[in-house]
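Lecture 7 notes: from sequence to structure.

We start with a single chain of 439 residues. Read the sequence below before looking at the structure.
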Amino acid sequence: MLKKKFIILFATTFSGLFLNNFAEATVLNNSYKEVIDHVWQIVYRDFLDSNGKFQKSNWINLRKEVLSKTYSDSNEAYDAIRNMLSKLDDSYTRFLEPKEFNQMRIDTSGELTGVGIQIVKDKESDDLIIISAIEGTPAFDAGIKARDKILSIDNISTQGMNIEEAVKLIRGQRGTKVKLEILRGSESFFEILLREKIEIKSVSSKVNQTKNGLLIGYLRIKQFNANASKETRDAIKDLETKKVAGYVLDLRSNPGGLLGSSIDISRHFINKGVIVSTVSKNGLKETKRGNGQALTKKPLVVLVNEGSASASEIVSGAIKDNKRGKLVGKKTFGKGLVQSMRTLVDGSGLTVTVAKYLTPNGTDINKFGIIPDIEVKMNINPILQREIGTRRDKQYRAGEKELINIINKKNQISEFIPNTTNLNAFLKINEEDKVFSLN
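Now the structure, written as tokens:
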């Protein structure tokens, strides 16, 4: 069974486990082979092959090869590990040096150092692809978008570069700058970004009032870190006291995070029913359901886009498949794999793909994404950060319109009284929606 506290959904530039004193690392007698073998054992035991290319016989032979060599320092051992993992053809199974691994653990706790982009290596094209630019970070403010490709970092080509190498170049001392060459479609351009240390508040909320006076609860979740569930709970409870008529949940450009966080947040809206299923390499299936403690039953619309990935897709898929609400925006990123974060014997770390997840309807969305109920493109001209979640925001506007329709239909049905003139209106509503049928 997968232990909740160790399972993380990754597709990020986040990296690293830092030891205050590297000399405290637990590799005995400079036995770098111990670290290599630790990685090998984890992959052999737990790795889920999503591409159908992993063969245990080849992996066993590889162990003999790597352990037959002599390694004079950690750099040689780490290079051997990366070369070993490259044969898995899995972008999300990654080795991280001690400092990188420590930074990853800090990041998932709610802090981020860098420019605020999350990336993945496309094994087929060898491209370094941006999953998302986190809201409020230098990359987001510069207009970096999901699916942008990084061609170079400080004039160093990313061709053949792995994620760890890219992270080292992008990260740096706070207040310094990094130049990224970006390819968007067929056009390339440069962006110079200032490195910053950013404490990410996962959730923001407010009350929006429609033209007809309805109060709408707007919730934006930027990342599913360790604080996101509690922050979402607190926000919903506050919005409920303000008598909102429904909710717009904004998961756009949310690259994911902790699996447990996505399940908890889904339970805030879904009272009963399946939320997500995870399937391990051995075919073992674990299903998470609503726990009967939803915080609200009010109408719901979820905003998604190309940067909504992994944990965002779990929440979106759960809401869509349970018919709890409508999805508005663009097709999501398509990351349906679960990674476990493992600490290695010398304080370095490994994120290894251990399972895939399925939406409540049993859909595997990896590489395909989730198609929204209502497809809406974002504004042609970029909007300011303060305009996100306002009527200047085209996707929000569409989401609010759909939410008003849901609220109005719900109110009309609840106001229906049998044997009155409301019957014609009732029949008309249900003929359009095909929610009910008269036998």
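Residues 153 and 235 are 39 Å apart (CA to CA). Keep this in mind for problem set 3.
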